[in-house]
Amino acid sequence: MTIMRAIVGTPVGSGAYSSGHASQIVVSDLHLEHLGPRTVFKNPIIDRFPVSNRTAISLLTAPAHLDALLRSARQAVSRKDLCGLQILGDATETPSVREATYIDTIIKRQALAVMGYARGNHSSAHAFGSLNTLSFGYQAFVHRYFPIYEEMLDAGNGAENVLTPQKTMRVMHDVIHHDEKNGATPETLNVRVAKGRNGAGYQLEGRGAEYMRFDEVKNTQVFQTFWCSQPGDKKNTKRWECLINYHEADTVPFMRRHAKVCPIYMQAFEEVRFVKKDGTDVPVYEITLDGLDHGSIYSAKPYISVFQIRLVEAFIDEMLKQNPEARFKISSHFPMTMLPRASKKEMKKLLAREEIILVKAGHTHSRDVTDLNKEFKLKRESDLIQITLPAFIDDEPLEDEQGQYHDGRAVGIERMKLVQNSDGTHQIEIEFMFKALSPEDVPGVNAEVRAQLADYRKKHGYVHAPAVMKEFKKMWPRLVATYGSNLKRTLWRLFKSVFPWTKERFKDVYEEMNTLQDVVDSLTSLSTIQMFHEVDHLIPFLESVSHFLRADDDHEMAVKAQLTGLTEYLKVEKVARRRQFIQAIKKVAPPSELRGFNDLYIRKKGGPNRDVHGTGAAISIADVAKILLELKADSPARAFAILAGMEASLAEFEFEGGAPTEVANRHRFVVPV
């Protein structure tokens, strides 16, 4: 069988040699999201953008918070030992190109090499981590009653801003190669696979009836066909990428593909080569899996096909042929413990290999440490630890001996070193630390910042849900009338659909009758009350940030002008929109109209027909996150924003009555080599 592709790039020699330490930073579930409609209900079905348990302050400060945390993490490790950053998925909350730019901006600011980027369920035209809008099931059934893709287009300012699977993979590729000028493109990486027979083999598109089975003898050919080798960074390390069926990822639902192999994007990275005293080197590779290897309508469902597992085995076997001392780490957005039975059965065989020494994942939003050897009964000689990282969307803080909570939104710092025992054998020692941001880690904090923060906390606070519920009770009779009117409309539509006058009329009524959409619209309209109350907290926050912007800095003065204009706009627009909303309720407007008022955060101050004051560039509240991120790292304005975001996140946690994490910050374990 002829190999269908060329190896892109020139394979370089061995990786970064070390007789000391190797370190990496790991992040997961950043959810650097678009604000979208607000809601007091913690349920993603009620709102298209389910950021229900987070206030605007904690959302807007998240990118700057992450930037400061990565800076602090870098200072905690030796620069010469730091190999790069591992991203475990869900960098965005919604499938938005705009949100994806945050992680790219932060990485470039930190000048970090990216070792791998796992695809998460909050991507690829997935409806905010729940529905796969490109699946056969969605297009055949749910789309008629729940046209969420159109909502994504509206909220994302059009199709150009929606992360389709191809756009997601391209964004991932760009982030991985951000420090390279002439790397391979997704088009040149792509391998077209026509079909596979239950993971037993594959057929390349355009090769007729020629069929290739997976076996150890042919693994070198499999490796050369699917894994593209590319030069690495200045440390002379090396990476590989495996991109499959990229060409049809956007256009063809899974059930209609002639290929039964889903689009897959994996990466592998040679992190380090430890050197034993006898001169033997021990390379350590990190393999990043793609857990969206399915066409299910449920996008939060993880799956790793047998086909993908066979490709991982081919990579491992090829590296072991080159060096039997090689060791491997597995990274994935989804924990191995969450895989369904069909996927878990084959994955357990892979994890039983002693050459695999560590597994890292995210998705659950909670930190955890699990021994997969015991969990899966793998019968390994050594333990296999799975580290699960927390998320930036949920603060699950640590509690100290005095009962004080500390921010639990952490990155991971992983350190490895090769140690020779007294009997001449060797082992790799791994230390994993969960690193959170503390007020002392935030540059730019001074006495004035602390005083302003205390004043804001005293006058405004951060939790406003009680006030929202109080108003909700007052408005309940009017809202009931709205629902009653909605029910009448639904029953009339149903009557007309049962007794249609013509075939064409039946079709029209069927398309109009969207009961589920009406229910969702009704519930979403309630959260408009939340939005108006939240603005009362957001306006003084923006004024406080503006207070610290310096008059002798042109950039900061330009930012101050933007924030001042936006603040004045919000003061005027909030009153007008609230009055219109109450009037719409009084006249028993349909839910679809009421839901339209829940857009204050994405409306722009400035631009055609949107500038109430007649001046100023187009800007919305969502732009504030970018503005804060682009302020100088030691700016007091940025410091105030980050500290306020940390307090807002903690207030949300305490209001919800959550339990703090019981997983310690540091963990150490060893693996033999």
Descriptive notes:
With 673 residues, the chain is α/β, with parallel strands linked by helices. The protein is built from 20 helices and 23 strands. The strands form 5 sheets. Strands 1, 7, 11, 12, 13, 14, 15, 16, 17 and 18 form a 10-stranded mixed beta sheet that branches. The protein has a 6-stranded mixed beta sheet with strand order 4-3-2-21-22-23. The protein has a 3-stranded antiparallel beta sheet with strand order 8-9-10, with no helix packed on it. Helix 8 packs across helix 9 (306-322) and helix 13 runs antiparallel to helix 14. The longest helix has 34 residues, at 465-498. The protein is globular, with a radius of gyration of 27 Å. 45% of the residues are buried.
The percentage helix is: 25-40%
Task: Provide the β-strand percentage band.
Answer: 15-25%
- The tally of strands reads 23
Low-confidence stretches: 1-15, 39-52, 607-616
Total helical elements: 20
